[in-house]
Amino acid sequence: MNPPRTVPDELDAVVVGAGFSGLYLLHRLRQAGFSVKVFDSAGDVGGTWYWNRYPGARCDIPTTDYTYGFDPELEAAWTWSEKYATQPEILGYLRFVADRYDLRRDIEFSTGITAASWDAAGKRWNLTTDRGEQLRCRHYIMASGCLSLPKSPDIIGAGLYTGEVYYTSRWPHEGVDFTGKRVAVIGTGSSGIQSIPLIAEQASQLTVFQRTPNFSIPAHNGPAPADRLQRLSEDRDGYREAAKYSRGGIPNEPTDILGITASEEVRRERFEAAWEQGELFGILGVFADQGLNPISNEIVAEMIREKIRATVNDPETAEALCPKDHYFGTKRPCLDTNYFQTYNLPHVRLVDLRKQPITSITETGVDTADESHSFDAIVYATGFDAMTGPVTAVDVTGTDGLSLKEKWVAGPSTYLGLMSVGFPNFFMITGPGSPSVLSNMTVSIEQHVDWVTDCLTRMRDQGFETIEPTELAEAGWGQHVQDCAAISLHPTADSWYMGANVPGKPRVFLPYIGGVDAYRRACDDLVAQGYLGFRLSGPGRDECRDGVIRTMQPDVAVVLELLATVGLPPLETLPVPDARAIMSAINATRPPSPEVGEVTDGALPGPGGDLPYRLYRPAVPAEGPYPIVVYFHGGGWVLGDLDSDDPLCRDLCARSGAIVVSVNYRHAPEDRFPAAAEDAFAAVRWVDANAADLGGIPGQLAVAGWSAGGNIAAVACQLARDAGGPRILGQLLMHPVVDSDLTRQSYVDNGDGYILTKGLMSWFWDHYADPADRGDLRLAPLRGDLAGLPPACVVTADFDPLRDEGLAYVDALHAAGVPVRHVRARGHTHTSVTMVGVVISGAPVRAEMAEALTGFFGVRTLA
Length: 863
Ligand code: NA7
Known about the structure:
The protein is of the alpha/beta class. Helices cover 33% and strands 18% of the residues.
């Protein structure tokens, strides 16, 4: 029996959910002096641990870490008995927490919030409970969990079955005795994989219906890991702080070893160590690149498959249990205890639904295409409508009468997974767009709760009544979330991370994969910038600093961070030979470049002597002849050579199906202006004249260049036009230098901190050209007459000092009637798009560049 209601009809905050999030939220908000009530449809605290009582249910994060960290005394008062605690122990812990902080008096159990509607005039949320009660609150906070709304079993005939039916996510409190029964389990996610070995211990016959085999590794459960316990006892605060600034919410030393380059011995050693350790983040971090690179991922995946084959006696069953349709880690891997061994028991059988799909659930069991199965009980372990489901299950209506469900019809849109435009004073704990399910939830939960509590406290202290994100900030965050996902392998999988497990749900990557550390910094940064991207209002005052908190591509940011840790001297402070040596040393560390059909080196006659060139012939199409692109490398007319832009040339060749002839023109300071420009023009003429001998199609000629190479490519086009030939079909100018004016806004915005600096650009200019020459059209092609030039594709990068001159060239070409395509390398620097195989987000930009090249030649893109 619930005690009589004591809920006031007006509260500072209402919280939905009494799990890890709701309990801590209640504690913090109450401590901060807010009136707050928590509602939960469960009969007690626990959230996910209240409902998921199936046999074998355990956490998959070590208990040393899957625990509250906010109160050292709480930690001292509780000792976990195992590395991975069982559901009853975790539930016991949450009950202990509720009692310790006297939380129950402000929790309304067995009561769900069914509707929430924003009263714009009163600046309050009006809430309705499933008991028909109405109440009002200033702030409405959903702490309703990411995996709390079970997915309905979308299987034909599910209602026909007359035997016992169980859902792992709604398991009977009194437990289930399967002794002597014929049992079916449908689903082989974490819930199925954890429960199957224990159900098999009781059942007389167990049939597992598997649609998708899952990667699972042995948990090696036992006492809490000694190394973690030791670190905690020596420095608890340091350990918890390290968790906050770790990638996944557990202190871990990330590796920089790449699967693609590691030796077989190192690969095996690292994998076996992770296998023995039995931790999710360990096996997900065997190699730095396994979440990004398919080859590296396959190395780990195959080693897991080997383990499965070595464990399961029947080869056919073993093969059916080997996951092959998704990259390892793109669906949440499982930790198990004797899962694969269970299939060696004589009364346990696997039905592979890929071979024998379920045609219907029947009155007595399950019919597949080939067989009729009878059971005494069916267990559905079929998962959840993850992340968005629990939020949109409540009818939340914001400003203008728009419901959250309507707003999210094409996928969730949030600012940091915390709030959503149109829903003032509405917060989500671990909502879509935050690290949530990709992290140790307890760390992410505490961070969100602390952030919300601080926000509400600030609002109260400064007299604000409402807070809401701006459209710009929310769109920017959504873009960043998808940018982070796009460089990973995750979007390729039909996972619940992608919403793919629920028929009709939009396919969008739901959590934030950028890391707990990166996420926390974003949340802290926007607060430090005066709540960037939020609109706050109160009586007589509004405050809004609009903007986007993260605009750089995530892998570009990582490269910049890495370079910062190396602490290289600024190139412009070095003698030229030293600067060249540093560039060569950095280039030597690059991963293998894309394969092309053939690479040959040669020399062509230039005005000052022979110029080395490297010719890249495509592998596809197999037969030539091919169009030809004459390419000029970057390096400020001072640095660079045939090796420096080799990966980019290979990439362009492979993608465009054109021969790329990369020409090593003369460099400054040895050969100053106009040497490079003259060489470029000479090279274009020579290639044009010798196209057939080079394997090219005569007349199918384009030029391309990056940075200073873009400068001489553009100049060569002007010279060719003025000289009446050769005929150039197109010019691909990547972040080109087209003017000598270093005062444009992009020099102000990006002049420092993004590798190519204003200082370095000045150094280049000083080495290449006298100040008196810098208005010459062979140096500053932007100042020339652009009419009659070949069609152009100009690529600009957001974080490039040269961005604005590139944009000016686009405008000027356009004004001169030259067909021009502008490719914006969003979130990139001057150098990042060239980092083939390192900066994955550069690939779509290079694909556009290749498409532009093929467009010049009038043929389709190949890759
Ligand atoms: P999951 O991981 O979503 O697993 C659900 C399983 O049920 C999975 O194997 C599904 O196959 C299967 N499934 C779902 N619907 C069907 C139908 N209609 N027919 C056959 N099989 C079906 O949920 P869990 O509860 O195991 O785990 C959720 C998370 O909780 C877990 O990752 C941990 O973080 C804790 P599919 O893969 O969709 O082919």
